[in-house]
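User: Structure tokens for both sequences below?

Assistant:
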Amino acid sequence: QVQLVESGGGLVQPGGSLRLSCAASGFTFSSYTMHWYRQSPGKERELVAYISPASVNKNYADSVKGRFTISRDNAKNTVYLQMKNLKFDDTAVYYCYAPRLGSWGQGTPVTVSS
């Protein structure tokens, strides 16, 4: 069955960095666009970034442009989200999503706090 397992979240100070990973299994990962979403307490889940199967197309929410980088390693069935210059407003649970499959991971929490 389809599985998406996120990791790499944690507590970081403002201005710090984290790299999130999402390990995929149960489908042909290299054929699917992959998304990262996030959800903060009391807010709607929002799209952070997505990447096409061969990494040709990438897109970012305006709030993270220039600070976050999405990438993937199809040989490892893994999609990454490198986050730099983190801000308080980046605090959220981050989810990996395969839209064509309608599958979500369990999420990994990121807390930006001093």
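Moving on to the next sequence.
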Amino acid sequence: EVQLVESGGGLVQPGGSLRLSCAASGFTFSNYAMSWVRQAPEKQREWVASIFRDGRTDYLNPVKGRFTISRDFAKNSVYLQMDNLKPEDTAVYFCKADSLSYEYWGQGTQVTVSS
């Protein structure tokens, strides 16, 4: 059974930090690009960051310099370090795995940035 389980969300003040984790199982993790996607209330899902099999990374422009995506092949996990958080970062954050043939999603974790 394929599973992507996110954790690490919560309530943080503007300027604060959170680290999201996504634990993957049920598929060959090393064969997949991993991404974080977010959905704010009443808005469409928005791609945030990706890390590819060769280690290359890519980011949504508004999060460049504030967010860092990484992966640990030994732990089958992907992470999103989020620094200098802003209220507009408030959203449910989803972990996504992509190959040429398949796409898997986690259930999401809520991030709320508010004073």
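User: Anything stand out in the second?

Assistant: The two ends are 40 Å apart (CA to CA).
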